[in-house]
TrEMBL record:
InterPro entries referenced in this protein's UniProt entry, alphabetically: Fe/Mn_Superoxide_Dismutase, Mn/Fe_SOD, Mn/Fe_SOD_BS, Mn/Fe_SOD_C, Mn/Fe_SOD_N, Mn/Fe_SOD_N_sf, SOD_C_sf
Subcellular location: Mitochondrion matrix
Subunit composition and interactions: Homotetramer.
SUPFAM superfamilies assigned: Fe,Mn superoxide dismutase (SOD), C-terminal domain, Fe,Mn superoxide dismutase (SOD), N-terminal domain
Name this protein carries in UniProt: Superoxide dismutase
Manganese/iron superoxide dismutase C-terminal domain span: 106-209
Binding site for Mn(2+): 43, 91, 176, 180
Length: 215
C-alpha cells in the first residue's frame, strides 16, 4: 500500500522536471575586452537557450516513445538528445569556467597535478590551445580527469558531444570553439580568441571541480 502511494507524486515530479537556462554569474559585458557583450548575450540567451528548449522537446517525445514501447522512435531521438543534451551540459560548465576575475594560473592541488601530468603550466596551456585550434569545424577542447588512472587528460570533442558521456573523462575546463563563441569579435581567427580566453579562465571553479571529482 505504501509503495502505491508513491506512484502519483513521483509521476507528477517527473512530468514537471524541465531543463532551464542557468543564469550567468556575471553580466554579459563582464568579460570584455576578451569576449564582448554581444557575443555573450547571443551565446547565452539564444544558442544555449535553444539547446535547453530542444532538449525538453526531445525528452518529451522520448517519454512518449517509452510509454508506447516504440523502440524505433527511441533510437531515432538519440541524436537530438545527444546534441541538445550535450549543448546544455557543455555550456552550463563553460559559463562557470569563465570569470571577469579570472586569468593567471591555478594554485594548490590542481597546479601540482598539471605539473605532474603535463610537465609545466605553460606546456599544458600550449597543448590545450593547440588541440582546440585544431578542432575541425565545431567542437570543444577539454581538460578532464581520468578517474581510473588518477590523472589529468586533454581531449577534443566534436559538435556538442559531452566529454564524460563520450570519453568517460570528468570535465574540469571546457573551451568552446564553435564559431558562435567568437566570430563576431575575432572573425575566422580562432587562435586569437583562444589566446584571449586564458585571461578569463576561472581557476577557482576548475580547482573546485578537480577537488570534487577526486572524492
Amino acid at each position: 500500500r505504501s509503495s502505491a502511494k508513491l506512484v502519483v507524486p513521483l509521476g507528477c515530479l517527473v512530468s514537471r522536471l524541465k531543463h532551464t537556462l542557468p543564469d550567468l554569474p556575471y553580466d554579459y559585458a563582464a568579460l570584455e575586452p576578451h569576449i564582448n557583450a554581444e557575443i555573450m548575450q547571443l551565446h547565452h540567451s539564444k544558442h544555449h537557450a535553444a539547446y535547453v528548449n530542444n532538449l525538453n522537446v526531445a525528452e518529451e517525445k522520448y517519454k512518449e516513445a517509452l510509454a508506447k514501447g516504440d523502440v524505433t522512435a527511441q533510437v531515432s531521438l538519440q541524436p537530438a538528445l545527444k546534441f541538445n543534451g550535450g549543448g546544455h551540459i557543455n555550456h552550463t560548465i563553460f559559463w562557470t569556467n569563465l570569470s571577469p576575475n579570472g586569468g593567471g594560473e591555478p594554485k594548490g592541488e590542481l597546479m601540482e597535478a598539471i605539473k605532474r601530468d603535463f610537465g609545466s603550466f605553460a606546456n599544458f596551456k600550449e597543448k590545450l590551445t593547440a588541440l582546440s585550434v585544431g578542432v575541425q569545424g565545431s567542437g570543444w577542447g577539454w581538460l578532464g580527469y581520468n578517474k581510473e588512472q588518477g590523472r589529468l587528460q586533454i581531449a577534443a570533442c566534436a559538435n556538442q558531444d559531452p566529454l564524460q558521456g563520450t570519453t568517460g573523462l570528468i570535465p574540469l575546463l571546457g573551451i568552446d570553439v564553435w564559431e558562435h563563441a567568437y566570430y563576431l569579435q575575432y572573425k575566422n581567427v580562432r587562435p586569437d580568441y583562444l589566446k584571449a580566453i586564458w585571461n578569463v579562465i576561472n581557476w577557482e571553479n576548475v580547482s573546485s571541480r578537480y577537488a570534487a571529482c577526486k572524492k
